[in-house]
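ok, trying the design again with the full structure, not the truncated one.
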């Protein structure tokens, strides 16, 4: 707290109803570039599997590369049938139509 009784964080006064005007906050731009951010990922580059990226997994590993994975398989009623994990080449089927899991591209 400062001498006026306002909450402080470090040397900065926290926003209060007396000093916060929402019409003046974050309304300057509608894009990342408008805020000066030039190195952000695009949707296409973010969703492209690359080495060192986690992905959610249905029944098959994405094509290309080598992947470590974990996959749990279920039947049509939602009962667990078992799971599997390992390291496989891209494009390998590791589950069935009712599978959930994750993978990490390692090469």
């Amino acid at each position: 707290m400062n001498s006026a009784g306002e909450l402080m964080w470090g040397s900065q006064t926290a926003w209060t109803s007396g000093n916060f005007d929402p019409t003046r906050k974050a309304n300057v731009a509608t894009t990342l570039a408008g805020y000066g951010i030039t190195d952000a990922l695009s949707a296409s580059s973010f969703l492209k599997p690359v080495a060192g990226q986690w992905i959610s997994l249905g029944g098959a590993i994405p094509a290309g590369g080598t992947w470590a994975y974990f996959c749990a398989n279920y039947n049509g009623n939602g009962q667990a049938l078992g799971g599997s994990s390992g390291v496989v080449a891209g494009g390998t089927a590791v589950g069935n139509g009712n599978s959930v899991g994750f993978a990490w591209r390692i090469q």
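Keeping the full-length input from now on. The mean pLDDT is 80.
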